[in-house]
Amino acid sequence: MAKSALEFREDAMSKLLINESPLQVQPSLAMAIGLNEAIFLQQLHYWLGASKYNRDGRVWVYNTYAEWILQLRYMSERTLGRTIKSLKDQRLVIVEKFEQSKSNQVNYYTIDYDTLSIIEENISQVIDSINADKMANSIQPKWHGGSSQNGMV
Q1: What is the pTM of this model?
Q2: 3-state SS, residue 16
Q3: pLDDT tens digits for range 71-89
């Protein structure tokens, strides 16, 4: 027996959509800093919002690489390491080891929101510039009055 349109739609949706929290990023941020970097930064921002660990006037999150990998399952440990290094090099993420004990060498992470603000400003300027170029180079209509639109006189 043939499937109804509703049954087909439900089957297609269950195969194409996920039933877990998606990883979301702004495309403009991904273009500016890299896709993996944007995903990691967004995940870190999420956890900073829930963290109660404050030190040096900043909120911090602590995780091992293994704990990050559980959240970012598509990343290998090497990719995660390169991603964090890239974010540190871009001065977007600060990583510290606050514990003195050799048995507890967990990294603490925070975002440098001042650097992120500068990147956001630059992205806005680029987008404004692109939009201005598009408007300047758009094709102007050949008709000059609304009365002759669609062949109506």
Answers
A1: 0.71
A2: helix
A3: 898 999 999 999 999 999 9
